[in-house]
Amino acid sequence: MCGICAHTCDPAGDAVARMNAEIVHRGPDDAGVHVDPGSGVALGARRLSIIDLADGHQPVINETGTVAGALNGEIYNFESLREELLRAGHRLRSRCDTEVLVHLYEEHGPDMVHALEGMYAFVIWDAQRRRLLAARDRFGEKPLFYVARGRELVLASEATALTRTGQASSAVSAAALDEYFVLGYVQAPRSIFAEIRQLPPAHLLTWSQERPHPSVTRYWSPPAPSGEPTEEPFAELVDEAEELLARSMRGRLHADVPVGLFLSGGVDSALVGAFAADQISGTLKTFTVGYDVGGTSEAVPARALAAALHSDHHELVLTGSEMAVRAPATLARLDQPLADQAFVPLHLLAAQARREVTVVVGGEGSDELFGGYPRVRWMDLAGRMARRLPDSALRSVGAASRRLPAGGRAGRFAQMLATRSLAERHLGCVTAGRPGTRASVYGPALAPLADSDLARGWGVEQVPGRHAAADLMRLDQTRWLPDDVLAKADRATMLTSLEMRTPFLHRELGEFAASLPAETHLADDGKAIVRALVRRRIGPEFAKRAKRPFAVPVGDWLRGSLGATLGEQVAGSALYRDGWFAAEPVGRLLAAHRRGEADHSAVLWPLFSLGCWWEAQE
Amino acid sequence: MSAPRVLMITPDFPPQRGGIQLLAHRIAAHLRESTVRVLTLGHAEAGPWDRREGLDVVRVAGEGSHRADVARLNAAALREARRFGPDVVLCMHICVAPAATAIRQAFRVPVLTYMYAREVAASRRLAELSVRISDRVVAISRYTARIAEDLGARRVSLITPGVDAEPATSGSTQRLQRPTVLTVSRMTERYKGHDVMIRALPLIRTHVPDVQWAVVGDGALRGSLQRLAEANGVADAVLMRGAVDDAERDRWLDTAHVFAMPSRVPAGDRAGEGFGIVYLEAGVHGLPVVAGAGGGALDAVLDGRTGRLVDPSDHVAVAGAISDLLTEPAAAARMGEAGREHAREFAWPRIADRLQELITESAGRG
Predict the structure, then answer these.
(1) Domain range for B124
(2) Which of chain B's residues have a Cβ under 8 Å away from the Cβ of A509?
(3) Contact (CB<8Å) B267/A228
(4) CA nearest neighbour of A299 among A325, A343, A263
(5) Residue A239: its chain B contacts at CB < 8 A?
(6) Contact A81/B270, CB-based, under 8 Å?
(7) Which runs of consecutive H residues, i.e. helices, occur in A361-498?
(8) Which residues in chain B have Cβ-Cβ distances shorter than 8 Å to A242?
(9) Looking at the complex, does the CB of residue A223 fall below 8 Å from at least one CB of chain B?
(10) Does residue B172 sit within a domain?
(11) In the sheet that A118-126 helps form, which strands lie side by side, from edge to edge?
């Protein structure tokens, strides 16, 4: 729930009030501004009421007025924290988690983050020490952006709350744009705006009037993977995961408003559904999106699951014509561009669910924590094979791969085999060939970055004797998960004032998953533990579902009216006019795609999404 | 009636180390009104050890896997019973239930069987057989007694394990200068709560910045626990000593400030801490204890008197309890003293006397 903002030099609270107004969608139920008169530091919050509907006003201030806090998200263990604080002599007035946060800060200072289980971004102002503390949750579920100018620091839940209120320039960063085009998202700590930084997951930011510069430190990381096979019996590991997931669900189903479930038809949301159906009183409401084109609808398997869960099931069938109307406007509302093809459908599904419920749970994070991506297995295998082959053989494989049909399994595996570095192999896998198109589609403003190395800093390398899979899973968890999957989930739901909760992203469950070797996770076609739990809780027929890369028919849509919109962008948008991208080659790709000569949606969709966002910034 | 003849059958016996080994040995040594013969497995260093201890021990050569050795022990038991002529058979583990069954049928001798907790889930069939053929089940805690009753046991006696109430002193009587929390446990089972201790450490550090957590014991989870400590930024406060000898272990017990082991009842059908003898051993050394409020620890720790029982899955509560004990030395010392007092009630002679009563009663009935 909620959106927050803060300004270290806003004695009247005007700037914070204006930023609050830019994030109304994150919290339509209430707004608050607190200004510390002694320092001129202001905190703001918009609230979506989920728990303690009456007394949850934010920002929260302690009894002496010395500590104020604003929270975006949920602290799932706030009740046990509250008990512990009462035991230690604190006096709390409400049942609200933000109040717990303020007292926890009094008890532990910045180390308070080690007590928290939840999804959160928060800001605390300590008027006595004249210190500001901001933090983001361990997996990166809730966002926080900031800009530091001179002695001032301004923070907000969404980047555009900073640019639209004049707190930061809206000039984009070329490096971020390059990253966006290749990866489909911008990696923290960067943001799409040159001046604005994003606080990475599991990081703390401190700033004080004495030292008025943000200091950013990491307070947690996913434990390094084990290289050794485990001696623990598999059934005991499944028991352990079941216990932790049940505990996670108990916290995540706690709400004073109705809770529903996004059901995709895959094993992750199925498992979440099985726990939810057991734990909530009344009938579980489930929501699925399907399409009128393409053969990729999730609707059919989701229907079978809904029947097994005895849920009150709702289906949204998204038509091409509806996409044509809704996609440009939806993408324009993003605070920074995101090329994830599932964003628009997820947002429209969220809008439908919001009519019935205020909170939804979903299966996000399971793929990253429990080894759900088949590419991890393939890359691991390719790495081990490549080490045994001489260079000459790999060169031949590389040459052969270019003759194999593009997009085919054999061709992709041969390409993996021919790529020496693990990071490049990963990049090749997740970017659908976009790095290679940069030279042709980049305009003069981006051209110098056409061969930039985006894998630098990933810390992925092939270490002989170690499973590459473990490193790749960790990379997915630290980059793709927060900057794509969770950004998508947060924006898609918050734009319609729906709160999404993710039971797999429980700290102890994450640490447990990381303590196991990759081979345990990758057995049983991947996600062995999740599949075993689905077998146990729902039935073996639901555990077999293979991971499918995308279930969104963007190729079809781009051949239809969305293609026409993209054509207009190419012809008239400043994105092309100002030389970021080159209109002519993009136009050629679009024409070939629309004629059905080739599927260029991997290149065209990020450009379409960016184009919609770009126009809204002008 | 003359002293009853007790045939103790146990796969676990010193010089092999472990909790059941220690229990079997102390019982054999302290059953003053019985004539005890121990039938157990061979061990490379058994000869000198048996001579030094002066107990009546018969060993079955163990050569293969543990499973094969236990089968050999079962096979040898009937022959040994014929030679020894017991009035009572005392099984120290459910895995010797087949031997007890045969002896009971052949000689109509009453059988007493010890139950702990973990072994029940590991081998349910043997547990059920044990319950069927035993005249009495000896449960080491209320928690275990419930497990035995759930299996259908009708006659269950609760006799906890004991402690050496006056241990050989390690020579170190001064507590360490650096505030030290100690855990003594193998790192083989997740339910022991090492992970919770790691999550608690950053919070303990906000009140006691130079705290260290010393862990005595080794096991397959050591690597992943080390990595968990790194992930949580507390590797510099963790001292993993691995498996150490008794002297070093006693030295840690004598010099640490708080003993903590927040064991939880494990997931699934598996059983957790049967009793938690280490909590009493900590008491013997005057250490206040922080333990999980569940399983066998409920019998070993008096909440608020010898230590604190907390929700073992809540690292914040664990951190709160440990911080309190570290920052309030007078209260901690009082709890340590109460722990020492409490442990005396569990001195081996007292425990053995209670078992002796059961044996005498069973022998009379037999």
Answers:
(1) 5-162+347-365
(2) none
(3) no
(4) A263
(5) 266-270
(6) no
(7) 366-370, 374-388, 391-403, 409-418, 422-430, 434-441, 468-475, 487-494
(8) 267-268
(9) yes
(10) no
(11) A60-61, A67-75, A118-126, A131-136, A203-208, A215-218
Distance of alpha carbon A189 from alpha carbon A199, whole angstroms: 6
Average pLDDT over residues A355-369: 95
* Residue B170 located in a structural domain: no
If asked whether residues B110 and B135 sit together in one domain, one would say: yes
Distance of CA B77 to the CA centre of its chain: 25
The CATH number linked to B262 is 3.40.50.2000
Question: Mean pLDDT over all residues of chain A?
Answer: 91
Q: Which of residues 160-219 of A touch B (CB under 8 A)?
A: 219
Query: Which residues of B are less than 8 Å from A88 in CB distance?
Result: 320
Residue of A nearest to B320 (CA): A84
Residue showing tokens 């485990």: A230
Is residue A407 very low, low, confident or very high in pLDDT (cuts 50, 70, 90)? low
- Yes or no, beta carbons of B231 and A231 under 8 Å apart: no
Region A389-408 average pLDDT:
74
- State in words which class domain A234-370+476-542 has: alpha beta
The string of pLDDT tens digits covering residues A143-182 is 999 999 999 999 999 999 999 999 999 999 999 999 999 9
Q: How far apart are CA B80 and CA B58, in angstroms?
A: 9
**Please, where in chain A does CATH 3.60.20.10 lie?**
3-218
- Cβ-Cβ contacts under 8 Å between A and B: the total is 81
Residues of A in contact with B232 (CB under 8 A): 114, 220
DSSP, residue by residue, A21-88:
HHTGGG-BSEEEEEEETTTTEEEEEEE---SSTTT--SSEE-TTS-EEEEEEEEETTHHHHHHHHHHT
Residues of chain A with CATH 3.40.50.620: 234-370+476-542
A279 close to B (CB below 8 A): no
Higher per-residue pLDDT: A196 or A228: A196
Whether the predicted pLDDT of A183 surpasses 50 = yes
Domain A3-218: homologous superfamily in CATH: Aminohydrolase, N-terminal nucleophile (Ntn) domain (3.60.20.10)
Is residue B171 included in any domain, yes or no?
Answer: no
For residues A259 and A279, give the distance between their C-alpha atoms in angstroms, rounded to a whole number. 11
Per the structure, the count of domains in chain B is 2
Which pLDDT belongs to residue A294? Answer: 64
- Residue B204, SS3 per DSSP: helix
Mean pLDDT within A107-118: 97
Q: What is the structure's pLDDT at A70?
A: 96
Task: State how far residue B76 is from chain A, nearest Cα, in angstroms.
Answer: 31
Interface ipTM: 0.93
For residue B173, being part of any structural domain is answered with: no
Residues of chain B falling short of pLDDT 70: 1, 167-173, 269-271, 365-366
